[in-house]
Amino acid sequence: MSETTFKQRVFSGIQPSGNLTLGNYLGAVKRFVKMQDSGIETIYCMVDMHAITVWQNPEALRKQTRELAAAYIACGLDPQKSILFNQSQVSAHAELGWILSCVTRLGWMNRMTQFKDKAGKNAEKMSLGLYAYPALMAADILAYQATHVPVGEDQKQHVELTRDIAAKFNYDYGVEIFPAPEPIIEGTATRVMSLRDGSKKMSKSDPSDKSRINMTDNADTIASKIRKAKTDPDALPSEIGGLKDRPEARNLVNIYAALSETSVEDVLSEFGGQQFGVFKPALADLAVNHLAPISTEMARLTAEPDEIDRILGIGADRANAIATPILKQVKSAIGMIARD
Ligand code: AMP
Ligand code: TRP
C-alpha cells in the first residue's frame, strides 16, 4: 500500500448544462461551502468539457457557465478562499484525460451505470465523449492530487473508478504520483428525487420543469412546485420506519431536514401525524426563505458577466499553477520528452 501522504485537497465539479437544481445545491454546493470553510484547500470547477458530451448550444453554454459561477458564489463560495474556474481554461484536464484513457480498461468503463442510464437504448448514437467521460473526471480530480471529492450519491461509482485508475497508473509506472481520492457523500440529501416521481433523481435535464426546483426559481414558483409535488394520501409517520415504501414522502422529509440542517428524526417528531396540507406549506416557507436570497444574489452577479469572467480567469491561473507541475511528473514517469 501507498506510503506517500498527500496534502488534503478538495476537488469537485458541476456541469454547466442547465439550471442548477435543489438536488445540486443540497447534494453538492452546500457541502462545497462547508468544506471551504473547514480550512482545507478547495477547488471547484464548472466542467464545460463534460457538458459537451451531449450537444450544447454555444450561447447557452456560455450563459450557463456564468450562471453556475454566479450560483457557486451566491451559495457562499468565496473566490478568494476557493479556486473557481471553468475546466476548459486549464489544459491539464484534457491532457491528463487522454493519458488516463490509456490506463482505463474497457471492462471498467462498461460497468458505469450513468452511461447506461443516459444512453438507454440509443448507445450507438451517443458521443464517444459521453462514454469516455469518467476518465476525464478522473483527470479532473487527479490533476490536483485531490484527496476528497464531495459529490451526490450518483457520482460515487465514478470516484471509485478514479481510485482504480490512480492505483493502476501508480502501479504500471512504479510511482506514487496519485492519491486514492475519497468520495464525500454526507447528509440527508445525497440523492434528492424528482417532485413528480419519487423513483427518479431530480435532474437539470428532466423534461418536466415541475419535477425540480431551480436555483433561479422565484418564491411563487418554488411554493407552487412544492404544493403540487406528488405525495400519497397518508399523514406523515412519527418514525423513520414509516417512510419505507413512501419515496415521495421520504424525499420531502429529507429535503426539509437538509434545508433546516436537522435530522429526519427531528423533522418527524415535529410533523409526525400531520397531513401534507400542513407539511407542504412549512416546507415551501423553509425553501423560499433559504433559496430566495440565493437567487436574488445570482441575478445580481449574472448582470455583470465581465466580472464573472475575470474571476474565472484568476481561478484558472491558480488551478494551472497546481496542475502543471503534477502533469509534468506524470509525463516524465511515462517517458515523454519535455523541455525544462
Ligand atoms: P451534475 O448536475 O450531474 O453535474 O451534478 C453535479 C453534482 O450535483 C454532483 O455531485 C451530483 O452528484 C450532485 N447531484 C446532482 N443531482 C443530484 C440530486 N438529485 N441529489 C443529490 N445530488 C445531486
Ligand atoms: N461527473 C460529475 C457530474 O455529472 C461532474 C464532475 C466532473 C465531477 N468532474 C468531476 C464531480 C470531478 C467531482 C469531481 O455530476
Please outline what is shown here:
By secondary structure, the protein is mainly α. The chain contains 13 helices and five strands.
Walkthrough of the structure:
The strands form 2 sheets. The chain has a 3-stranded parallel beta sheet with strand order 1-2-3. It has 13 helices and 5 strands. Helix 1 (about 20-35) links the parallel strand 1 and strand 2 (about 40-45). The chain has 2 domains: about 5-185 and about 305-335, Rossmann fold; about 210-300, Orthogonal Bundle (Tyrosyl-Transfer RNA Synthetase). Helix 9 (about 220-225) packs antiparallel against helix 12 and helix 10 crosses helix 11. The model has no long low-confidence stretch (mean pLDDT about 95). With about 350 residues, it is mostly helical. It binds adenosine monophosphate (AMP) and tryptophan. Tryptophan binds near residues 11, 14, 47, 149 and 158.
Number of helices: 13
Q: Name the bound molecules.
A: adenosine monophosphate, tryptophan
Number of structural units classed as domains: 2
Question: Within the CATH hierarchy, at the fold level, what is the topology of the largest domain?
Answer: Rossmann fold
Low-confidence stretches: none
Q: What's the Cα radius of gyration?
A: 21 Å
CATH architecture of the largest domain: 3-Layer(aba) Sandwich
